[in-house]
Design a protein that fits this description.
The complex is a heterodimer of chains A (about 325) and B (about 270).
Chain A lengths: L2 H19 L3 H24 L9 H19 L3 H23 L5 H20 L1 H4 L12 E4 L3 E4 L3 H23 L2 H11 L1 H6 L4 H27 L9 H14 L6 H19 L2 H18 L4 H17 L6 H5 L3
Antiparallel strand pairs in A: 1-2
Chain B lengths: L2 E3 L2 E4 L11 E5 L6 H8 L11 E2 L2 E2 L5 H6 L2 E3 L12 H8 L8 H6 L2 H20 L15 H14 L4 E5 L7 H16 L3 E5 L3 H7 L2 E6 L2 E6 L1 H6 L1 H8 L7 H15 L10
Parallel strand pairs in B: 3-8, 3-9, 6-7, 7-8
Antiparallel strand pairs in B: 1-2, 4-5, 9-10
The chains are: A mainly alpha (about 325), B alpha/beta (about 270).
The structure holds adenosine-5'-diphosphate (ADP) and magnesium ion.
Amino acid sequence: MSSPALAVGLLAVLLLTLPFWLRNQYHLHIAIQVGIFAILAMSLNLLLGYTGQLSLGHAAFFGIGGYTSALLSKHLDVPVMLGFLAAVGLAALAGYLVGKISLRLRGAYFVLVSISFAGVIALVSVNWIELTNGPLGMPNVAAPGIVLPGVGEFVFRSKESYYYLVLGAAAVSYAVCHRLVHSRFGRACLALRENEVLAQAVGVNGTAYLVVAAVTSAAMAGAAGSLYVHYTRLVSPEVFLFSYTVSMVIMVVAGGKGTLLGPIVGAIIFTILPEVLRAVASYQWQMLAYGVLLILTIFFLPRGIVPAVTSWWGRRRRRAVTPGLVPVAESERTL
Amino acid sequence: MTVRFGGVAALSDVTFEAQTDHITSLIGPNGAGKTTLFNVVSGFLRPHGGDVRYEGTSILGLRPHQVAARGLVRTFQKTSVFPAVTVFENVMIALHTQGTAGVWDILRGGAKVRDEEARLTARAHELVEIVGLAYREGDVAGSLPYGEQRILEVAIALAARPRLLLLDEPAAGLNTGEREELIALIARLRSEGISVLLVEHDMRLVMGISDRVVCLDHGRVIAEGAPAVVRVHPEVVRAYLGISDGDEPSSSDQRTANGQALAAGGDTLTAER
Ligand SMILES: Nc1ncnc2c1ncn2[C@@H]1O[C@H](COP(=O)(O)OP(=O)(O)O)[C@@H](O)[C@H]1O
Ligand SMILES: [Mg+2]
C-alpha cells in the first residue's frame, strides 16, 4: 500500500470511529462544529480559492439554508430531509441571483453586492416577524429523521448520530469539490483567476463559469446552514452574522486557498482554537491570542498551511530520492 | 475598420485580407496599430466603423471567447501565460474548447467524462512535446525563463485548436536558437492547415516565412503584397527610415537602423520593442 493511500485509510477509520473514543459530549459538539465549518470553508474556497472572487456575504447563503428548512418544517411540517433539499435549492438560487447581478463586472463589485445582499436578507429575517419571529428567532426546530423500511423512523437527536450526518455531508461536499476542481470546469475557473484575458482568448466564457461556481458554492453553504439549525434546534438572525463570513475567510486563507484540504485544515484549527483558548484565558486574552496566531500564520505562511506543508514535504522527498540530480528530463525530451 | 482612441485614429479605414492556408504578416513601426487590429479581430475591442468577416460571416460584436470558439485564436504582445500553474496545466486549461463536459456531467462522473479527460490529457502531453517543452511539463509556468514562456504561449494558443492563429510579436526577446524553433513551428502550422496572421519586427523572419505581407503605418495600410514587393516598396522603406514626421527621436534611431537593414535585404533587422 502506498503511503498516501495508507494515510487516507487511517484518516477514514479515525473519522468513522470518532464517537466511539471521543465520549465527551462537549468534544463531540466541537467535532460537529468543525464539520459544519469545514463545509462552509470548502464552499467559500470554491469561489475565493479557485476563481479568485471574494464573497463577503457568504453568511447569507448559510442563513438562507438554515431559515428555509427550519421554516418549512415549522410552518408546513415538511420532513427535514426534504427541507434540507429545499434549503440547498434556495441557497443555490440566491447564489445565482447574486452572481448574475455582479459577476459580469466582478472583483470589488462582487464583494460589494454579496455584502449588500447579506445585509438585506438579514434585515428581512429580523423584520418579517410573522414569518420568522424576528430577532428572537424560533426555538424547537425539528431534528432530522429518516424512515428506515421495516424499522421505523430514526431521528438524529443524539450528538453521535448527528456527527455521522455532518460527516456524510462534509464527505459529499469534499467529493463535489474534488470532482469540480479536477475537471474542465475547475480549469476554467483557474484560468479566470490566473489570467482572465488569456482565458477569454482560449475560449473560456468568464461570466458563465463564475456564475456556476457561485451557485455551487452557495448551495453548499445552504446545506451547512440547514445542518446547523437542525442541530442547534434554533434559528435566529444570528446565522447572518458577519463574523461567520469572517471565520470562513480566515479558515480558507490560513488553511490554504485554492487547495482541497486547506479549508478543512483551516476549519479544524480555527474551530478548535477558540474553544481551547476559552478554557485557559479570559475573553480579551482569547481575542488577542487568536489575532496574534492568525497574523503569524499569514505572515510566515502567506499561501496558507497546506501549501506550505506540501512544498516542504516535496522538497524533503526530492532531496531523499535524487541526491545529485541527473538530467532525467533531457532524455525524456523527444520530438 | 476604424478605431479611435480619444481624437487619435489608431486605425483609419484599414482593409486587408488574410487568406486560408497562408502566412500573412503584418508589419509596421511601433504605434502603427498592429496590436489594435488584433484586438478588434479577436473581439477585445469594438471598432468605430467597419466589419470583420471570417469564412464569409461577420464576427463583429462577438465576445472574445466566442471568437476563439470559431477558431480564431490570438497570442499577446506582452507575455501572457497562467503563471501559478504548471506548464502541463496551462495547456490543459487552454484545451477548454476541445471538451464538452458540463457541470452536471462532471458531478455525475462516469465513463464519458473520464474518456474526455483522458483524451485531453493525451493531447496536452502531445502539444507540450510538439513545442519542445516536455521536459518542463511539471514546472510552474511563471518560473520559466522568458523565452520558454513565449513558446508556452504558442502551445496555449495551439491547444485552442485555431484555424486562424494570430501571433503578436512571438519572436520578441527570443534568442537565435529559440527563434529558429519558432520559425520551424510556424512553418509546420501552415503545412497542417492552420492559417497564420503574424505581427513581427524581425524582417528576416517575416520575409522568409510569409506568403503575403501587409505594412501598416499610422493606422493605414501603406503597402501589401508578396514579401519581395513589400520589402522594396518606397512607402515601407520610408516608414522604416522614419522620414515621415513627428516621432520621438529615440524610436527614429531604431527606425533608421531598421530601414537600412530593410534596404540591405532585411538580414540583420532587430526586434523593435
Ligand atoms: N488602450 C489605448 N488607449 C489609448 N491609445 C491606445 C490604446 N491602445 C493603443 N493606443 C494607441 O494606438 C496606436 C496604435 O497602437 P498599437 O496598436 O499598440 O501599435 P503597434 O502594435 O503597431 O505597435 C498608438 O498610437 C497607441 O498609443
Ligand atoms: Mg503591438
